Amino acid sequence: MFDADGRSKPLLEVEGLVRHFGSAGGLFKPARAPVRAVDGVSFAVMRGETLALVGESGSGKSTTARLVLRLIDSSAGRIRFDGQDITDLSQRALRPLRQRMQMVFQDPFASLDPRLKVRQTLEEPLIVHGMGNAAERRARVDELLGLVGLSQHHADRYTHEFSGGQRQRVGIARALMLHPDLVVCDEPVSALDVSIQAQVVNLLKDLQARLRLTYLFIAHDLAVVKHMADRVAVMYLGQLVEIAPKHSLFANPRHPYTRMLLDAIPRPQPGEPSRHQAQAAGEVASPASAPAGCRFHPRCPFAIDRCRVEEPVLEPTEAGHMAACHRKNELAPWEAAAPAAASGSVAALRLALYAKRKAASTGTV
Predict the structure, then answer these.
(1) In this model, does residue 232 exceed pLDDT 60?
(2) Which residues are paired to 232 by β-bridges?
(3) Is the pLDDT of residue 243 over 70?
(4) Which residue of 11, 41, 230, 293 sits 20 to 30 Å from the alpha carbon of 208, by its own alpha carbon?
(5) Could you tell me the pTM of the whole model?
(6) Which pairing describes strands 231-236 and 315-318: parallel, antiparallel, or unpaired?
(7) What is the DSSP letter of 231?
(8) Which residues, including other chains, have CB under 8 Å from residue 249's CB and lie 6 or more apart?
(9) 165/108 Cα distance (integer angstroms)
(10) Residue ranges per structural domain of the chain
(11) How far apart are CA 103 and CA 215, in angstroms?
(12) Which CATH architecture has domain 9-19+35-100+181-267+287-365?
């Protein structure tokens, strides 16, 4: 779908999205400060693209994913799907749209019912939405199993008989049963063995090209994001701090937090120096006690007095590239990555993932 100027229209638009969790307290329990899990997030996902939402654990990525699918309700803001405002739609009104937006969950062990065989799991969405007869549903299950790299004989097994990678393939097949336009992938490879992650990422890319899917891809591993995404949105303590096309963000990040995340990617050559002028310090703060001003300033090596009192806004730095940092135009240029790290090939992805696994097993960083 295109607008009057021939430009592609967004499939998903999020404007000023907010979700706070709080406790009003009780007779013997004092009220607690609200947890600002998502605090004024705005972005758009164009048809056919992959927008990656990245950040450390606790930054609000998964909450954002559930908000855009209306699995939980927002405290404020608007959500538009294919031009229709779905923010306040009732569950009955949302039901026809559920077919067009689906989710692949993070944990393939917890997201599949162990009491059901694979065929029952995959047929369930069709039955719930009243689609097809028994023969048609059976044919659709067989078709999707083939698309995700499984065979028909897998349909009559229980999920406990599968490996983690095979279970996630079943989860992907379930998400695609109803011919969705938008698929939200909530860290779909983080629970898998490193040797399987690249296979699942490549499967998702192949399915996107074949079925013309649009992805909102939640992740914290930038090696995976670099192989998967078209654009990247960086989230910290419930807010977006940078959003840009993938190549622009990896070549010249304009926010210190983004630079910290990029510098954490394992380097192929042991002992290769960091490209940071100074290292960020500390751990991500609690969303219930986010600091005043820029939320990253307690960890930022470039923070100035202004950062401690004035919250920066997301502003353009160049075409398609936006950052929320008072010093975004003062940071030294980001050096080009080494060729192996810059490559988007499967080999480079496997190398980065292997380095990450080895570092984790030896306790090094």
Answers:
(1) yes
(2) 52, 244
(3) yes
(4) 41
(5) 0.85
(6) unpaired
(7) E
(8) 232, 234, 242, 258, 321
(9) 8
(10) 9-19+35-100+181-267+287-365, 106-177
(11) 10
(12) 3-Layer(aba) Sandwich (3.40)
